[in-house]
Write a structure and sequence with these properties.
Helix content is 26%, strand content 21%. With 687 residues, it is α+β, with helices and mostly antiparallel strands. The strands form 8 sheets. Strands 1, 2, 5, 6, 7 and 8 form a 6-stranded mixed sheet that branches. It has a 5-stranded parallel sheet with strand order 11-10-9-12-13, with helices on both faces. Strands 21-26-29-31-30 form a 5-stranded mixed β-barrel. A hairpin with a 2-residue loop joins strand 30 and strand 31. The protein starts with a helix and ends in a 12-residue tail after the last helix.
Length: 687
């Protein structure tokens, strides 16, 4: 009942959009992986993390300071200090835009939403403060590397940070086929108890597991048994949150690890594979402290640490590009002396090599050094891309020339997964990291295929779609652009097709050049695009059977070569693909690189205020503040992507009659395009 009440409350609160990486951090916080943190950092907690890599706490309230980190930061209350310092080395913050800051001003609580508009959590007692990006980058990373991928995320994020404690509205699930490997802190500890572990050692992975890794894990288990432990359990812990583009995708790693366990390279009874949900920020010695702290929270007493943990090559062009950003030995050293380590111990390992005599991985023996070969990550990736098969008994000197992989280097199923990935990196769809794949609600006649938040996602339409034009009666493929009639049934108003529902941020649009014109993600450089300015407070879509002809000039501007855009300002959140009868109220004209992009303003005919709103003046009277917010949105929404402010021909919309004249003109242009075929080839799919 409490959860139901919380969900009901969430629907009434102002909304804050989350990026993929923010959802990952929400999961980390909500499931307890960053304890004692119970929410996104307030400014005081952020200052402590940045300057001391730790937080001072008083869990038993000896000083009256219990819970002080969960209150508005008090810069003057420093006379009394909590008695205990716990590790918290990295910033866990929630960036927001100026638009979102204004939208939530004065709220006692806000709801956090996925890009699909799903409410994920309620954040209490919001604290909004300046996003001091340079300070965060300098303190956290301690290096200058502007092209560093996570530094880029910080630099491009909103100019404000939102702190406050969170309550999840349910377990975070991603719908990517990997949720069975995602255990919460409590679930993971229960699994260790079920296996009667007397200690747990964690091994983090960001790469596929080969025999060298398996040797290190088995050797760690051997060391622990030598110390007297009877049943040390391995937590194979693939990193599941956001990662840089060049990293091996999460689904490849998890499926490969699963094969390693199932095919016996690791003992299934004493191994638990569970995805660790945090993003990777590539902050070297600073970040690895959090990796260890979080594994300790998950139940591990030992953490296996290799060379250059959480490091990466320098990304920025110049003479140092490609060199290690951090000294490879620093991470392990810093970890051993970090604050708040507690009783956790660290197991270091040395480099291992492939022994040609017995086909195993182990440290090199100097007396017979020629029997050992090094198989680097680069060589392994190249061999996988070549489709290498197992080598003969006598291992050739040049593995690449022989296109073979030494026997025992990797289990058969794991190697097959590697070959599949490296031979099909560009042609198959992978899961790079934990991304939510549950789509927004669809109209009942709209059918989805592929995965939401991936380029394969597509929404097509069937013959039960309402409002189809008479000429669509015999068509085998229903197009939302060409076959839905412009006019609403009975001659009352127009019809819009919803692409982007209210309260979402995923940029979905009808694909002009694809057969049937399905609704798909807008994309750039192979990645789906989202609005980063804030949650949409309107339903966005197109007017069917319209086309802004680029040959048509209006003053110094041409049409933008798209169907007419329409913004529905009613109270209801519509569904993707929904055909909605609307009345037209006006038109805002956006100027974009010399093109005129009309934004038709409308209200659904079934909206409770439809009877009272017939013009822009009525809109301002009945829905005060909506029009200024929309003008701001249209001008500013690209600025959070680093682009310039958009230009409107006027902040005052044209009248309803003027907007209808534009619709008529664009409908006539569409007829020339799609009916009489009087327009030269455009590359569009036409019926």
């Amino acid at each position: 009942e409490a959860l139901l009440a919380l969900r009901d409350e969430a629907r009434t609160l102002p909304g804050v959009p989350l990026r993929d990486v923010d959802v990952n951090w929400l999961q980390v916080i909500g499931e307890g992986w960053a304890s004692p943190l119970r929410g996104f950092m307030r400014e005081g907690a952020l200052m402590q993390a940045l300057h001391f890599n730790s937080l001072m706490v008083d869990p038993h309230n000896f000083t009256g300071m219990a819970g002080y980190l969960e209150r508005q930061t008090d810069w003057l209350h420093t006379a009394v200090q909590p008695p205990t310092r716990v590790s918290m080395p990295i910033p866990i913050t929630l960036p927001i835009s100026e638009f979102t800051r204004r939208q939530i001003a004065g709220a006692a609580a806000v709801t956090l939403y996925s890009s699909a508009g799903k409410p994920l959590a309620v954040l209490r007692r919001p604290e909004v403060y300046a996003h001091r990006k340079e300070e965060i980058i300098a303190r956290c990373f301690g290096a200058i590397d502007p092209a560093h991928p996570y530094i880029g995320l910080i630099a491009s994020a909103g100019d404000w940070l939102l702190g406050g404690e969170v309550q999840l509205l349910g377990k975070i699930a991603y719908g990517d086929g990997l949720d069975q490997f995602r255990l919460t802190v409590n679930e993971l500890r229960a699994e260790f108890a079920r296996r009667k572990a007397d200690t747990v050692f964690a091994f983090q992975t960001r790469n596929p597991t080969h025999a060298g890794h398996a040797f290190l894990m088995r050797d760690a288990q051997r060391q622990l048994k030598k110390r007297g432990y009877k049943n040390p359990v391995l937590w194979l812990s693939p990193l599941g949150g956001w990662t840089k583009d060049s990293d091996v995708p999460l689904d490849v790693r998890v499926q490969q690890h699963d094969a390693v366990i199932n095919e016996g390279m690791l003992d299934a009874e004493s191994t638990v594979m569970a995805i660790w949900p945090a993003p990777m920020i590539y902050a070297g010695p600073t970040e690895v402290q959090f990796h260890a702290k979080s594994r300790r929270i998950g139940g591990a007493s030992f953490f296996v640490v290799g060379r250059d943990p959480a490091g990466m090559p320098r990304s920025t062009a110049g003479p140092l590009k490609g060199e290690d950003l951090y000294n490879g030995d620093h991470g392990r050293y810093v970890l051993s002396y970090s604050p708040g380590v507690g009783s956790m111990e660290f197991i270091s390992f040395q480099q291992v090599y492939y022994d040609k005599r017995d086909h195993t991985m182990k440290p090199k023996e100097k007396a017979r050094a020629d029997d050992f070969i090094s198989i680097s990550g680069t060589k392994m990736r190249t061999l996988a891309a070549l489709g290498a098969v197992p080598c003969p008994a006598e291992i050739p000197k040049d593995l690449l020339a022989a296109k073979c992989i030494p026997p025992g280097f990797m289990v058969e199923g794991g190697w097959a997964k590697m070959v599949d990935y490296y031979q099909n990196k560009e042609t198959k769809e992978w899961v790079p990291y934990s991304t939510m794949h549950e789509p927004p609600a669809l109209a009942p006649y709209a059918k989805a295929s592929g995965k939401f938040n991936a380029l394969s996602f597509a929404v097509s339409f069937d013959r039960s779609t309402p409002g189809l034009a008479p000429e669509a009666a015999s068509t085998p493929v229903v197009s939302p652009w060409h076959h839905v009639a412009l006019g609403a049934p009975g001659g009352h108003g127009y019809q819009m097709v919803v692409e982007i529902p209210k309260g979402t941020t995923s940029k979905l649009e009808v694909q002009k050049g694809v057969a049937g014109n399905p609704i798909k993600h807008d994309s750039k450089k192979g990645k789906v695009r989202e609005y980063t300015y804030g949650l949409t407070f309107f339903n966005y879509g197109l007017l069917p059977q319209t086309w802004e002809d680029p040959a048509h000039r209006s003053g110094n501007h041409t049409g933008d070569n798209d169907p007419l855009d329409i913004i529905e300002l009613g109270g209801a959140k519509r569904r993707v693909g929904e055909v909605v009868p609307v009345k037209v109220l006006g038109n805002l004209k956006l100027i974009d690189q010399g093109e005129l992009d009309h934004k038709i303003l409308a209200l659904a005919l079934d909206d409770p205020k439809a009877g009272a709103v017939n013009s822009v003046a009525d809109l301002e009277r009945e829905m005060p503040g909506v029009l200024p917010a929309l003008v701001d949105w249209l001008k500013m929404y690209k600025t959070t992507d680093g682009k310039e402010v958009n230009v409107l021909a006027s902040d005052v919309p044209d009248s309803a009659d003027e907007a209808k004249a534009v619709i008529t003109q664009c409908n006539d242009a569409w007829k020339k395009l799609a009916v009489t075929k009087a327009v030269p080839y455009t590359g569009f799919w036409l019926p």
